[in-house]
Design brief:
Layout lengths: L1 H17 L13 E10 L2 E12 L3 E10 L1 H7 L2 E10 L5 E12 L2 E13 L2 E6 L12 H4 L7 H12 L5 E7 L4 E8 L9 E12 L16 E8 L6 E8 L2 E11 L8
Antiparallel strand pairs: 1-2, 1-13, 2-3, 3-4, 4-5, 5-6, 6-7, 8-9, 9-10, 10-11, 11-12, 12-13
Amino acid sequence: MRRGWRQAWTRHGAAVGLLLATGTAGPAAAEDIVASYSAYWAGLPAANIRLTLRNGGVAYHDEIEIATQGLPHLFTRFRATAAAEGRLAADRTAEPSRYLAAYDLRKRRDSRVSMHCVPRPGGTVAERGPDDTSRKPPLAETFRKNSVDPLSALERIREALRAARPGRSFSIPVYDGARRFDIVGRVLPKSNPADGTLRAELTLRPIAGFRGETSEDGDPDDAPRKVELIVTDDARLLPLSITVPVFFMPLVIRFEELCPTASTCSK
């Protein structure tokens, strides 16, 4: 169970956590946005999450903090922080430059995933930084080319949801330093237009670095993972609820509050 929770949070927790911020700031926002969320697994407390989004109009700097509690904390002692930065193109497409994630587990402290994007013919390639502690060899360049880190993907998701129409789909290539997967999304038709919410179905689709390949954490789950996302149906697209199955039981992430600053935001 300990290894299973470690895999769930280190592989899918970051990817799901990034979805929390799919639009908490409007396209012209320049101030910090800080939000807190609570996660529940099988109805029991599982984690506290805090997001800080900094959007200066032509650049972004996003951060996330995740700390397990309850049964997941008992087995994993998992805590993580991640930060991503880059620029926003004229069409608001996020172009990442750097990504750093640091996490602690019960038997592994101060682990780091560090990446920076290097220009190459035909696009950019994610390369490891000097402070990266990964023991697994990086994927082939083809899987690291023209992809985004998990936090920069939130900027891509935000714009995709803003532009998407019910029934239309979109796909975002993501590389987390060890695995390559796609976030495939589809906006669902409104069942009740008066409730003020927008529902989307997202799928985390494995591409490379999953089952059957060498991994320092054992064989990751290589099955596509469905994510149910509910956001406010307004300019901010504020996430209200995210549901994803973990061990055949739902992990539910719920919005708690917007905070004036990170120091005043409960975790």
